[in-house]
Write a structure and sequence with these properties.
The structure is a single chain. The strands form 4 sheets. Strands 1-2-3 form a 3-stranded antiparallel sheet, covered by helices on one side. A hairpin with a 5-residue loop joins strand 5 and strand 6. By secondary structure, it is mainly alpha-helical.
């Protein structure tokens, strides 16, 4: 082993010497001879000494304990002479580099590779899809953020309401005080009703009422209107009172064709309650000895007042009302048929004003103010004619009766409606007597031509619409011939007389007087 290392070191030193003392080719001629004519490297014995001398200048490095290779025993060739035992391993050839695509080569040089046309299309499609995915992710984050905010708000509200701001909301302990009237508007929520209750002094705080309201599933059945509730009530009792069957007050139902004043039936003597009687009954607050109501007489007196603005008379009716022949009937027809609500805690005048104002708005919603283009009537005259239609016709015949009125007014023919005779009578029936028809009054259309001085009843909106848009026709006469309400129309007077005979035969025209 030592011998092999020695030979390897010798070869290493020889290479170093060759490198450091390489031959200078410039000292030789182009033909291979030196300046003295001797061949370079030729087989001449006399050059042996030169080479011996030349090699002697190569320094030889030996260690102190280095063996004397000349005196060392020579071994036979063991096959290791041709091996190179350099101290440093020969450098290994680097592994082959992978072939790169043209696009990667250009990218390595800082240049952008130009993709093929198909690749560009796929690249644009991929870009669009990436942008769409990014937009969707952004929208999802936005939606998620909104939901989180709403959730946090809802939780915070629930905590505040349930905890009452880290404590129970203020509430009355009782006992309850006097009754007060509270209005529930259309569309009011439990929170809005609670605020109204606080304003009226019913409950101590809106939070207390709201908590009691959400625990009662019947709160959804509360209708718009006026309610009597004890003041200074515990919230739970206030909710129970609001839902009580006798809580609602000021709720008025007026049937079509009803008059302001009471009348009586000739045959039965039964009283036909007028609008004033209906209002008085709906105005009562409380029960028993503590009950307070507006009276029929108080309403009659208020309706006869001269302050028409205080009564809420609309401008389109004001002049005719001011000229009314009977003050007690001056606001007839200005309170519409239907369901109305009023504050029963108000004065008689305030109650009438509230009802007239609401009715005028209802009338005007049908197009009353523009109806004269078809009939030639003013809004107030249209209201008068509609009250006649209401008293004379069933709903299916109203447009025809309206046309009869318009046709007769155009030729100045008296209307001759029995309803206008009965209007001023206390005892009435369908048929009228000769004396009643002959009695001249501001409303009797047998004794005069034209329309009555004021409406004779509360017309329905159907009657008002029929009068605003009468059915086309030439009819001048009509008569109801049986108890079913069958009505015959004609423009011929002789045919009308035959129809009247049919009515007599059915008994509908028989008088109880």
């Amino acid at each position: 082993m030592t011998d092999r290392w020695a030979r390897a070191e010798e070869r290493y030193r020889q290479r170093e010497a060759d490198r450091r003392y390489r031959r200078d080719d410039r000292a030789w001629d182009r033909d291979g001879t030196d300046a003295g004519g001797r061949a370079a490297g030729g087989p001449h014995d006399d050059w042996d000494g030169y080479y011996d001398d030349d090699t002697t200048v190569i320094p030889r490095y030996t260690d102190d304990d280095e063996l004397d290779y000349d005196s060392a025993p020579q071994h036979e060739d063991d096959g290791y002479d041709d091996l190179d035992y350099d101290l440093e391993p020969e450098p290994q050839a680097p592994p082959p580099r992978p072939q790169r695509s043209p696009a990667r080569k250009l990218a390595a040089k800082g240049k952008e590779a130009r993709p093929a046309r198909g690749s560009r299309k796929r690249s644009r499609a991929a870009s669009r899809k990436a942008a769409e995915r990014k937009r969707k992710r952004r929208n999802m984050w936005l939606i998620g953020g909104v939901l989180v905010v709403l959730l946090v708000g809802a939780v915070g509200f629930a905590v505040r309401e349930l905890a009452g701001g880290f404590g129970a909301p203020e509430d009355f302990a009782g006992p309850a005080g006097p009754l007060v009237v509270v209005q529930v508007h259309a569309g009011d929520t439990s929170s809005q009703i609670a605020e109204t209750m606080v304003e009226k002094g019913v409950v101590a705080s809106s939070g207390a009422f709201f908590q009691a309201a959400v625990r009662n599933s019947n709160m959804s059945s509360v209708q718009p209107g006026y309610y009597q509730i004890p003041s200074r009530s515990p919230a739970a009792e206030a909710v129970a009172a609001l839902l009580g069957k006798n809580a609602r007050v000021g709720n008025l139902v007026i049937s079509e064709g009803r008059l302001l004043h009471d009348q009586h039936d000739v045959n039965t003597g039964a009283r036909k309650e007028g609008i004033y009687t209906k209002i008085a009954a709906a105005s009562c607050i409380g029960t028993g000895a503590q009950q307070k109501c507006v009276t029929y007489e108080e309403l009659d007196a208020a309706g006869s007042g001269n302050d028409l603005a205080a009564l809420g008379v609309p401008s389109w009716a004001e002049q005719s009302v001011r000229e009314a022949p009977d003050r007690k009937r001056q606001i007839e027809g200005l309170i519409a048929a239907g369901t109305l609500d009023f504050d029963p805690s108000g004065t008689p005048q305030q109650i009438l004003r509230q009802l007239i104002t609401a009715s005028a708005a209802s009338y005007e919603s049908t197009g009353l103010l523009k109806s004269g283009a078809e009939t030639g009537l003013s809004p107030y005259e249209t209201l008068i004619a509609a009250s006649l239609v209401e008293r004379e016709a069933l709903p299916q015949d109203m447009p025809k009766v309206a046309r009869v009125i318009v046709n007769r007014l155009e030729v100045e023919q008296p209307l001759q409606f029995d309803s206008t005779v009965n209007y001023s009578l206390d005892r009435t029936e369908v048929a009228t007597t000769d004396d009643d028809r002959a009695t001249r009054t501001p409303w009797n259309t047998y004794a005069m031509s034209g329309l009555p001085a004021n409406p004779i009843s509360a017309p329905s909106l159907n009657a008002l619409r029929a009068m605003e848009n009468p059915e086309p026709g030439d009819w001048l006469y009509f008569v109801t011939i049986d108890q079913k309400g069958t009505t015959l129309f004609t423009e011929s007077y002789s045919e009308h007389l035959r129809n009247i005979e049919k009515a007599r035969q059915s008994g509908i025209l028989d008088s109880g007087r």
